[in-house]
Design a protein that fits this description.
alpha/beta; five-stranded mixed sheet; 15 helices; 14 strands; 42% helix; globular; binds zinc ion
């Protein structure tokens, strides 16, 4: 570091495990011993780090290890789905402390849903007053800096709503809101892949199709937060299906969970919900497998374009459809490896989500923690 490291930067070193003793910090930052002592004392006094007494007992006095104080605060989070919302409290490492799921129809609108969320957080908090920030993932395009819901895929009554001030009125802390798939992509990347790769494409296939892009280790949002909206890229030979956006053969209209159900019903199959489809796939029903595999091929067509553009190290398929359907994933693989450039696919992995349904919660907490524990925020708070 060419200039003197700040307390906030020292905290980052301790949090990441890069430097966990005073001597380490001195070595990494080039700070003098008194300067290190001063910054560590500041972080200890603010409760951001703790000293660990235990060290290797190999004779001599072991150096005192410093550890980030993960229990020094709490982050209420919510991952909103169309019908079901996951609500949780997380610690400062992003680990879930308490969780509860609510069946809420987001179409009830922000006037109903947001107060319900806040009441639930308060119940879970049970008098705790060490909230450091709040995070939400919503099934809509979000102008991230403002927390404004731009165009809503399933929640039209939310369009134009700026969420953070509504929540900050009751909880006076930073409130961060992002698109649900971005949040899931962040969670999956950080927990499963962060140590090995920086470029990941997360595709969520559920009733709708959306994607989140991690590029160079960070989420790619685009100019207004609409990056990753791959659902409305058209496919070839989709058969002329009119999408709800007004265009023909968007991948969302031919390969989403909704489309798979519609195609099976058109073949006279008695399927009420996606779990019926899952059961048929598990039973090895040939007609269902063929429909799902074709959906996978269409999805693969759009993903191969994204792979050529972004060159991710891994494509992760998540959402309740992708997690359950082996034939869908096979269809995707078949087309992506055929269509994408050789260089982009040379070491490309295509995998299922490993974090599963909890990824949204974890991603929300990490989004908040990256913000409130950034070196800048920590230094600003000490002034
Ligand atoms: Zn469309």
């Amino acid at each position: 570091m060419s200039r003197l490291a700040t307390p906030g930067e020292v905290l980052q070193l301790i949090r990441s495990g890069e430097a966990v003793t005073r001597a380490d910090i001195g070595r990494v930052t080039g700070l003098s011993r008194p300067a290190v002592a001063h910054r560590v004392a500041d972080l200890l006094q603010r409760g951001l780090i703790v000293e660990d007494a235990e060290g290797p007992s190999t004779g001599g006095r072991p150096p005192v290890r410093l550890r980030f104080a993960t229990s020094g605060g709490v982050v209420p989070v919510a991952s909103l789905g169309a019908r079901r919302t996951q609500i949780a409290l997380c610690d400062l490492a992003g680990e879930v402390l308490q969780r509860t799921d609510l069946d809420i129809d987001v179409e009830e609108g922000p006037g109903v849903v947001l107060p319900l969320l806040m009441d639930t957080w308060e119940k879970l908090l049970d008098g705790r007053n060490d909230v450091v920030g709040i995070g939400l993932g919503v099934p809509a395009t979000v102008e991230f800096a403002a927390g404004r819901v731009e165009s809503a895929r399933v929640m039209a009554s939310w369009t134009g709503v700026v969420i953070p001030p509504i929540i900050a009125e009751r909880f006076r802390v930073p409130v961060l809101v992002d698109n649900d798939v971005n949040v899931i992509a962040m969670g999956e990347h950080r927990v499963v892949y962060a140590s090995e790769l920086d470029d990941l494409l997360f595709v969520k296939v559920s009733t709708r199709i959306g994607a989140g892009v991690i590029s160079g280790g960070g989420i790619l949002r685009g100019a207004l937060g609409a990056a990753g909206e791959i659902g409305h890229i058209p496919v070839r030979d989709g058969g002329g299906v009119l999408c709800r956006c007004g265009n023909l053969d968007c991948v969302d209209s031919v390969a989403s969970g909704t489309a798979i159900l519609r195609d099976l019903r058109a073949k006279g199959r008695d399927v009420m919900s996606l779990s019926d489809v899952t059961a048929l796939v598990r039973a090895g029903d040939a007609e269902t497998m063929a429909v799902v595999r074709q959906a996978g091929r269409w999805l693969g067509e759009v993903i191969s374009g994204a792979v050529n553009l972004l060159n991710p190290a891994v494509v992760v398929l998540g959402g309740d459809v992708a997690e359950m359907f082996q034939p869908l994933v096979s269809g995707v693989r078949e087309v992506v490896y055929r269509r994408s450039t050789q260089l982009a696919t040379r070491s490309l992995r295509i995998e299922r989500s490993r974090l599963g349904p909890g990824a949204g919660i974890t991603g929300c907490a990490l989004m908040v923690l990256d913000h409130v524990l950034s070196a800048q925020a920590v230094d600003a708070a000490s002034r």
